[in-house]
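FAQ
Q: What does a multi-component entry look like?
A: The components come first, one per line:
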Amino acid sequence: KAGVTQTPRYLIKTRGQQVTLSCSPISGHRSVSWYQQTPGQGLQFLFEYFSETQRNKGNFPGRFSGRQFSNSRSEMNVSTLELGDSALYLCASSSAVTGTDTQYFGPGTRLTVL
Amino acid sequence: AQKVTQAQTEISVVEKEDVTLDCVYETRDTTYYLFWYKQPPSGELVFLIRRNSFDEQNEISGRYSWNFQKSTSSFNFTITASQVVDSAVYFCALSAYTASKLTFGTGTRLQVTL
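Then the predicted structure of the entire assembly, as C-alpha cells:
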C-alpha cells in the first residue's frame, strides 16, 4: 500500500498570504489528522477529520482550517500568514472508525513564511 | 489534560552501546494509548509501537524493546546494540482511548557515532 502523501513538500510564502496544503491518506483510511511541528512548540495537534466532518480540534486560531473530501483526501488552509506559522506540517491517517488507531504520517510540508 | 515528558533532550552513544530513552506521561484517563515514533532527518514520523493502558507486557522487536510501567507512568524505549542508522529524534506520544489526538513529548535526539 502506498503511504500518506503530502503536497507540496516545500512552500515559501510572505506574510498576509494564504496557503493550502494537501494530504492523501493511505488507501482505506478515513481519518486524517494534521499536526504542526516547530522548534519552539514541538508537535501540536491541529485537527482531525473523519468522513468529511471535523471530529477533533486543537488550540489553534481560526486562521487554520481544514476540510476532507469524499475520497478521504484532506486539505489544510492557513489564511493571513504570520511569521510564526513557519513550520513543518504533518498529516497522518488512520483506519479508526471510533476511538484511536495507529496514525501513519506523511513526509510533511515545510512552510516558510517571509 | 494530558502531558508527555521526555527529559532527555539529546543522547550521544557509540555504535553497539545500549541506550534507553525515557518517557513519563500524565493523564486522567483510565484507558489510553502510548506510542513511540522515530523522526529521521527526512522529517517523516515513523511509527514504532503502540501500547494500550491495560496491557503492561513488555515488548521486544529485534533490537528494540519497550518497558511500560503503569505504576510510575513510564513507557521507556531501549535500543540494544545501537547502530548509526538509529540516529534520529524519537517521540513518545499519548492519546485517549476514544480520541485520535496525539499529545507528543518534546523528543529525544539520539546520535549514534562510529
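Q: Is there any commentary attached?
A: Sometimes. For this entry: The mean pLDDT of chain B is 94.
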